[in-house]
Amino acid sequence: MATYFISDLHLGATYQSDTRSRERMVVDFLHSIRGKAERLFLVGDILDYWYEYRTVVPRGYVRFFGALAELADAGTKITWFIGNHDIWLFDYLRDELGIEIVDGSLLTEIDGKCFYITHGDAIGTLRPGFKLIRGVFRNRFCQWLYAGIHPRWTVPFALRWSSHSRATGCESTFDFATDPMVDFARRTLVEHPDVNYFVFGHRHVVANQPLADGCQFVILGDWLTNFTYGVFEGGNFVIEKYTSEG
Question: Domain limits at 138?
Answer without folding.
Answer: 2-241
